[in-house]
Every structure is written in structure tokens, then in C-alpha cells.
Amino acid sequence: MRISPSRTPLWFWIGLGCVWVFALAFRFWGLARFNTLVFDEVYFAKFGHNYLTQTKFFDAHPPLGKYLIALGIALKGFNTWGFRWMNALLGAAIPLILAGIAYQLCKRPSVALLTAVLASLDGLLLVESRYALLNVHILFFGLLAHWLVLVALNHKDHQRNWWLAGAGASFGATIAVKWNGLGFLLGLYLLWFVVKVGRAWFGSQALQPRCLPIQRLSELSWLQLFVYLPAISFFIYSTLWIPHLVQNPEFTFWQVHQEIFSYHRQVGGAEVHPFCSAWYTWPLLLKPISYFYQVTQSTVEPLPVTGPPLPQDAVQWIYSVYATGNPILWWASTMAILFLLAWGGQQIWYNMTQRLQGDRHCPSTCLSVEQVWVPAYIGVNYLANFLPWVGVSRCTFLYHYMPASMFSGLALAWFIEGWLQTPNKSLRAIAVTLLLASLLSFILCLPLFLGLPLSPMQWQLLRGQ
């Protein structure tokens, strides 16, 4: 049995197609122009190539991300285009998956399209999609798993189980890229608990009768959520290790996990890398990561220019790639998630006090279904992907915040769409201003995202120095 969704309008599909073309264009443009290994490509691109040459090696992460890089190399060769194009393709799909999540959350095409637009303007997501790194793989499979869960809630019986099987496979895949992909699975479990408690405490009388998939999360049984889903995830995760273990037989499945865990425990703190950053700096974008830096007197490509460093007074052009967010969009998203968490907490407290005082009916300020469960979904998943980093003492980087940032961006899109629909002219003006400012900020920062030539003065201005 399938629960029929409302039809989406044609303008939504046209808009989503335009966002996808926009994302593809910026990810594939000049993909091979820096003919060198950038940042952790020195590990991941080489590891991907090692799979094709059957060269033994040790890797501190699970293997799926390098398999995908290896696939790109197998199809296009061991060159900058070959080991980067797969990431560009997957990265361009992430705004679409986020749009799918947003649509399933509230069944409003305008929210979904705005979510995709904002994600396409995310500078850090753009940069990570242009190099042979692992973070876009975590986002692709983790977000896909959440979309599949939400779609499963639109179905019943065996059809639901098939969709959940797909979600379990995607959860297993994201963990098989890096272990911090577990944050997506943790978010689902925490949200299930929140929905169970919320429906038991408040019941349904305090909610307007509008049915959304997230409300049906409590319908999932213990067997489905704690046996069926994790069993599929573990099966996919462990199966994906087989090619790596066959090629590198010195460790068994359990031994290689012990080795990886020991490696990460021994990785030092901020002193081991100049761009290490503490978790509390990420929402404020305080410490971006320099991925590439080259000075030259010519803008003639191919790059980089080789040879001894130029004298400082001879420098005319700087090619620099920074893994950094779109500043306006990043800070606005941080404000949006903080406001959502504070507002949600205040509403929960208010309704709890009303309930404790004996008011079992809908209070005058009762919330709609969307106002309850959409913030709950966003807030819980944001915290599940962010707070575990609080206790990590090893060197961490801004890109570790990316899974959480997907949900803060979703919060901003949800607020902006609401403000655009309100009769309050001030809120509509704020929404339009944020959208235009985010676009302008994206354009101004493009030289740092794409590594376009800059004068020393322009470079310092863009870096805020």
C-alpha cells in the first residue's frame, strides 16, 4: 500500500533542473587546471590508484570513498580529471537530495527548491566536490539514506521494508566512507525516540490534522529499526571491505578496525597541522583550510608553475584555493539553526507546562504539524552530527562540520520560505536580502573556491586580512 503524495508543479522540476546544471557547471569547470595533488589527494587519489595496481597499503579510513575514486581513474586515467570527476558528479547531486529531504519533510515544493538553491551556493561543498576527497561521499550516502527513510514512511508493509532496505544500504555505505557517517544513523535513532516521546506526551490533539511522513516515524517497529535496518547496514559495510582485505591480507576485518582506531587515537591536536580547528569555531567559519597556494608572474596555464619561489616584490598573481564556506550563507545558516533550537526548546517547554497544568486541549498558541516535526527533524540531526565532535581531542578540520551544516542550511531555507510567504513586509525584505546577499557573496568568493588568479591585495581582501 502506498500513501499518495500531492503532485509537484512543473516550475519545481524546471527550477531543480536549473540548480543541477548550475552545480554541475561550477564543479566541472577547470577541474583539471591544477595539475598536482591537492591536500589529502596525496593519500586518497594514490590509494584509489593502488586498488587498480594491486599495491598494498594501509588506510586510516574505510575503503568505499577510494573505490569510487578508483572507478573514476579506471574510466578516465590516473590524472587530475580522472581522480576528480566522480566527486564532482556526486557533489552536484547533493543539492537535489537535500531538496528531496525538504520536500518529504513538509510537502512544499518552494521549500525544497530554496533548499537546493542555497546548497548550490555553499562554497565548502563546491570546493570539496572538485577534488579527490571523501567528504562529499559521506554527504551523498548519508543524505540519501535519510531521503529513503522519509520516502519509506509514505508506504506500508512490504513496500516500506524495501525502501528501508535501501536506506540501510546507504547508511552502511556512508559509514564505509568514514566512521563519522554514523552521525546520520544516530540522528535517525534520536529522532525516532523524540517522535515516540512527543506523541506519547502531547498526543495528537495539540496538532493540526496534517499528515507528514516524519509523523509516521513512530510506526517503525523495534524490529525494523534496531534489527532489520542495522543488519542491512552492517552487511553492506562489511561486504565493502572484502576487496580491500583481499588485496591487503595482513589484517583481518577486526584487526584492521583496531589499527584504524589506534591510528586516530594517536593523531595529535591542533599542533600537528596549521589548519586544525576546534569544533566551536566551525559554525562561525573562523578557520578555513588552504588547499592550494601558488604565486606566479603569469596567468598562462597549465598550473602550477614550478621552480624556486619568486621574490615577494615580483609576485603579480596568486592562485589560491580555500576550503571555506560562503560567508553570508554560512553565518545566516548558523543563526537560523541557533534560532530554531532556541525556539523549539521554548515551544516544548511551553507545551509541557500547559500539559502539566492540566490543559489537555489545543492551547491558543498550538503549533501545526510542520511547526513541530520539521524543526525537530532538523534540530535533532544537526546536533547528532555536531555534538559528538565536542569530545574529540585529535586534530579536526572545518570539513568535519559539513554533515551538520547540511541541516543548518535546511533550517535557513525553511525560515526564508516562511518569511517570503508572510504578509509581514519586513520579514519578506529580510528573506530577499539574504538570498541576494548569499548570491553576491558566492560570486565574490569564487576566486577562492575555484583558484582564480588574484593580485596580492585582492587575495588579502578576500581572506579578510
Which of globular, elongated, flat, extended, rod-shaped describes the shape?
globular
Name the average pLDDT.
Answer: 87
* Structure class: mainly alpha
The tally of structural domains comes to: 1
Distance between the termini: 60 Å
Model regions low in confidence, pLDDT < 50 over at least 5 residues: 1-5, 205-209
Strands of the largest sheet, in order across it? 1-2-3
Rg, Å, rounded: 23 Å
Question: In percent, how helical is the residue content?
Answer: 55-70%
Task: Summarize the biggest pleated sheet.
Answer: 3 strands, antiparallel
Percentage of residues in DSSP E strands: under 5%
Number of strands: 3
**Count, helices:** 17
What is the H/E order? Answer: HHHHHHHHHHHHEEHHHHEH
